[in-house]
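Colleagues,

For the teaching module next term, I've prepared a clean inverse folding example: a structure given as tokens, and then the sequence designed for it. I'd like students to try predicting residues themselves before seeing the answer, so please don't circulate the second half yet.
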């Protein structure tokens, strides 16, 4: 019995997130097919079929997410309190993928390019996860007085969530601007793919 109890303690120590019931984002990669056998051809194909961002310009890659919450409200006297909020976050990274096998030299250039692009998109994923953690911090424990039916609290939460969502979008736009500007990481990746192919 004592040994089994020790084993349980070791398991809990090894997985503190599971012990505390913390959430984990579900992350997946989706690809879209591009044509070409050289760096310039592949990049031109990305420009033709890449995902549209905001329904306008085409991008090399894109990060999207779906966020839902399981929230528990409690009436405490005349007030409403959000006692818990558990997020369910799914992040999808959309990346280009050549439709056909590439020549060895182009394949090496492509691998360097796509791994750099994927790393860039993972940063967007980190921004989204950070936003969800900020939403938790800003809302769990929120108390609104004179709200026994828990209606006012939802309007207050919407206000807070809107500000955090706008901040995350701005952060992502600024990151893209820096990475795509002259000398930025993604700009360098594009030059290496196009000039090397």
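(Answer key — instructors only)
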């Amino acid at each position: 019995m004592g040994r089994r109890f020790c084993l349980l303690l070791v398991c809990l120590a090894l997985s503190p997130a599971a012990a505390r019931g913390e959430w984990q984002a579900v992350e997946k990669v989706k690809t879209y097919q591009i044509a070409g056998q050289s760096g310039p051809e592949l990049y031109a194909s990305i420009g033709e079929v890449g995902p549209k961002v905001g329904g306008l310009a085409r991008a090399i890659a894109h990060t999207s997410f779906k966020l839902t919450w399981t929230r528990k409200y409690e009436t405490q006297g005349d007030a409403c309190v959000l006692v818990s909020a558990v997020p369910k976050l799914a992040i999808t990274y959309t990346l280009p993928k050549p439709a056909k096998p590439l020549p060895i030299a182009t394949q090496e250039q492509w691998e360097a390019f796509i791994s750099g692009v994927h790393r860039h998109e993972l940063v967007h994923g980190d921004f989204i996860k950070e936003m969800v953690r900020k939403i938790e911090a800003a809302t769990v424990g929120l108390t609104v007085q004179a709200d026994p039916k828990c209606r006012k609290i939802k309007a207050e939460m919407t206000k807070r969530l809107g500000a955090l969502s706008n901040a995350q979008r701005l952060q992502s736009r600024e990151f893209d601007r820096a990475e795509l500007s002259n000398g930025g990481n993604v700009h360098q990746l594009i030059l290496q793919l196009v000039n090397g192919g």
